[in-house]
Amino acid sequence: MDDPTLRGMFAPFQDLQDPRMARTRYHDFHDILVIALLTTISGGEGFTDMETFGQAKRPWLETFLRLPNGIPSHDTFGRVLAMLDPDQFEQCLLAWTETMADASNGKLIALDGKTIRASVDKAGKKSAVHMVSAWCSMNRLVLGQLATDTKSNEITTMPALLKLLDLKGATVTIDAMGCQTKIAEQIIEQGGQYVLQVKANQGSLHEDVKLLFDEAIAHDFQDMSFAYHETVDGDHGRVETRRLWCTPEVDWFADRQRWVGLRSFACMECVREIDGARQIDRRYYISSFEGRNPQRFMEAIRGHWGIENQLHWCLDVSFGEDRCRARKGHTAQNLGRLRRMAMNLLRRDKTSKRGLKGKRLLAALDNDYLLTVVTGGP
Predict the structure, then answer these.
(1) Does the model's pTM come out above 0.85?
(2) Does 165 lie in the same domain as 306?
């Protein structure tokens, strides 16, 4: 890779180990990774697309890649990505993301999982790959991701992912699956704050917090310290009112000592009115926030929804992730990382005002724009 700008861009990947035996290294390892990434940015979805992209762009690629034996075949792309150590790849991805993102101080980091549905292998008796991602809503970047163990779930994967992240000054939001005492403790120990949703999976905790707010709301929080914030959104015959109550009164909670950093409870009520029909939904949260700033609570809760709208939905609609049937070895995980890396680069680019789909088309047609996306240049 002769271009100094590109060398700097992919510096974190220089230590990534080639999984192939020396005698089978017919093509340069880093050339394979770069072409795979460029293909993904440009709208490609699989190994055949990578070979096709390479052949079509060969004169341009030769200006900054080694390509000692031409463009790798689709089999080569598939073999390398199936063998590539996903944990080592993730470490490099984290180092690379740090070169793009600012410090985490004050940022909202949402953790949530997503299943790559088509990756299920019934013949090989392998379940679909489930990835847990850390999403920074402020700059819309994927900070990190790990796959759950085939015999485990998100609860065991989240602590491992959190350990990889710099949480100093950040607020971590997790849905009910991650509402665990050990996870709350880890977030505090790493210098972060937490807002954790509480559902019936927490048994008495959910019952206690629900009863607290249901009674307090019914009696206008009589003799109880609280803060309140409300927003109203509406369009096309739909009106949504969001009300948030939070309270710093946690001393009554019998198990409060088990929840490190616990300082407040919160309730978010969403009232949706569509064509005269009315629907009310209440959600409950525990947090290390003081409990006197309801706007901060609402920003954290609504920010968490961004991981579904701005990450998972885009991966399926713009990148076709749920259609991806790659399942051999570590292929599904590593292709998932390429998609998220491509998304980060496309999100970062401000030279085009188009959406992800439009940017990918432009990248496929315009080499200069594709290079701008990769390098972050003007």
Answers:
(1) no
(2) yes
